[in-house]
Structure formats: C-alpha cells, structure tokens
Amino acid sequence: MFKQPEQPYTQHLLNSQPERIQTDYDYSAESPPLLEGKQIRCYFTLKQKQFLKRNVSELKAVDDVNLQLFPGETVGIVGESGSGKTTLGLCLLRLQNCTGLIQFANQRLDQLPPRQLRPLRRHFQVVFQDPYSSLSPRQTVEQIIGEGLEIHFPELNRYKRRKRIVSILNEVGLEKNMLWRYPYQFSGGQRQRIAIARAVILEPQLLAILSY
Description:
This protein has 212 residues and is α+β, with helices and mostly antiparallel strands. 28% of the residues lie in helices and 23% in strands.
C-alpha cells in the first residue's frame, strides 16, 4: 500500500505534507527546549472504608518523570491503559495539580498563578481524547471554535473571526454550513475534527493530543 497505493485517496494522503504553522518563536538549531518537565509527580489519595476502620493508600499516577520537547519535534508517549499518559499531559499543561518543574519557552509554568497563566494558554493547546465530553452541547460549532479567538484576539471583529473559523473548518474537512450546528448533530470523528480546529486556530507553539 505504501509503495504502490492504488486508491486516489490513499495516494493523496501519502503525498500530503502539512505546512508548519508560522509563529514568532525562534526555531533555530540552538533553541532551548520548548517544553521541559523535571521530576513531575502526581499522586492521588485513595480511601477505602472497611468495618470499623478506613484504609488510606496512594496511587502514583505519574512518578518522577523527566521530559524535553524541542521546537519542531514530535514526541509520542506510549503505554497501556491506566499507565498515566493522559495525566502526564494534563500535568505538563497545568491542567492537573502536580509537583516538579514545568518550563515552557524559558518560562516557569509551575510557579505562575492562574491569572498569569491564562494569556500563555493560547501558545499550548490540547485536543482531549473524548470528543463527546470535550465539546459544550449548548454551543454551536462557530461558538466552540471562536471562543479562543474572542479571548486571545479581542481585536478581531465578528467578520474576521468568522473568516478564520471558516478557513480552519475547511482545513479539517468540514463545511461552512456546519457553523450553526450543535455537537449532537455530528459523528464522533467529526466532533474530534471540531476539537482539532478549536486548538489549531490559535496557532499554538505546542499542540498536545491526548489519545486512548
């Protein structure tokens, strides 16, 4: 299939070469890590009630993990279900409480309060693994994808926001007439495309894909 693909769609996929999103970040060869985590730990306390006593144990979801991700690099974390892959991703994005050093573009994320962290979030976006729970059922596709633009690009008027939204919909294989639909009107695969569009429309420097 890879050497002599017969189907036109397969040929198109193999010949595709996505363009790198242009950002103001320095992608020189001597660049420091874009993302770095040192001694990342995330423990959960488990309480089990038994007759006349309560047992307390600790679950080590992430235990002393070190990681570096350089500009332009793709890193995949592989492990069996329940091994802590998603938890590690959430920790590095400051979406889960943990201990350890987390540094993004030479800035310590683990030391920032939520208010100072918020404007930086457009630079590292996430696509969650469940397309059914990650999209608000009360928002249209236009509202879901455009919410980040309203927060991080307030200078854009409604016309310019919609133009960007339509453009990103085309990139993920969805049509303009889907702007006013709600998540329940889409299949699981289409919902995941909406989630991807919501993340990449902000042109982040880092994109985390949390998969099963």
